[in-house]
TrEMBL record:
Pfam families associated with the record: Cytidylate_kin (PF02224)
UniProt signal peptide: none
Protein name as annotated: Cytidylate kinase
Binding site for ATP: 9-17
Listed SUPFAM superfamilies: P-loop containing nucleoside triphosphate hydrolases
Species name: Mordavella massiliensis
BP GO terms, sorted: nucleobase-containing small molecule interconversion; pyrimidine nucleotide metabolic process
């Protein structure tokens, strides 16, 4: 078993930025489990499956093979052998990932992939259920959150910077809706593990959050 740092929290709390930074500074690999759910979501969208069709989603899992690789330290997602990393970051894929991740077959499919990585490597793994379900014995567990207003503002700034037209109130509504779904689903809901350290990043810089996490780790 490698050394593992589990970071869970809602969308937009800064998990991936922080996890990537901590991984780089510790020399561990960064595992973005949300990207794996997004990878399967791309498959469901390609098949034209409705996000509410749980049976169709479960059936479509049978001909989807998601795997992960690294190119210059950056995580790549492959769907049936094709690198689909550039397709993952759209709202459509995010919404499908959020909906389809409540289907037990979807979670089961990705669980072994995630555990296998943590068995072989030192990892910083981020997601929604890492400390509670995927790696209950993780060496360090963090629940990283921020207010919905802060998270919406960060997302808004990010989209504006990329030149994508967007509406702040709509983004905040989407974030609240996504939280609601991620926290209230029957299987592996987003929850703070009893032994996780809570960090609210609303008024913290990236550096401050990373340092708070590094302080919890072995030297
Ligand atoms: O972190 P993200 O936005 O890329 O994740 C996309 C969706 O995937 C998220 O809405 C919920 C789901 N997810 C999950 O259920 N469990 C994880 N460990 C990671 C993501």
């Amino acid at each position: 078993m490698g050394y593992s740092i589990a970071i869970d929290g809602p969308a937009g709390a800064g998990k991936s930025t922080i996890a990537r930074l901590v991984a780089r500074e510790k020399g561990y690999i960064y595992v973005d489990t949300g990207a794996m759910y997004r990878g399967l979501a791309v498959h469901f969208l390609k098949q034209g499956i409705d996000p509410g069709d749980a049976d169709g989603i479960a059936a479509a899992c049978e001909d989807a093979d998601v795997s992960i690789g690294y190119e210059e330290g950056s995580q790549q997602i492959y769907l049936n052998g094709e690198n689909i990393t550039s397709l993952l970051r759209t709202e459509e894929v995010g919404n499908m990932a959020s909906r389809s991740s409540s289907v037990p077959r979807v979670r089961e499919k990705l669980l072994s992939l995630q555990r296998d990585l943590a068995r072989r490597e030192n990892v910083v793994m981020d997601g929604r259920d890492i400390g509670t379900c995927v790696l209950p014995d993780a060496d360090v567990k963090v629940y990283l959150t921020a207010s919905s207003a802060t998270r919406a503002r960060r997302r808004y700034d990010e989209l504006r910077e990329k030149g994508v037209p967007c509406d702040y109130s709509q983004i905040e509504r989407d974030i609240i809706e996504r939280d609601e779904r991620d926290m209230n689903r029957a299987v592996s809901p987003l929850r703070q593990a009893a032994d996780a350290v809570l960090i609210d990043s609303s008024d913290m810089t990236i550096r401050e959050v990373a340092d708070a996490i590094l302080a919890l780790c072995r030297p």
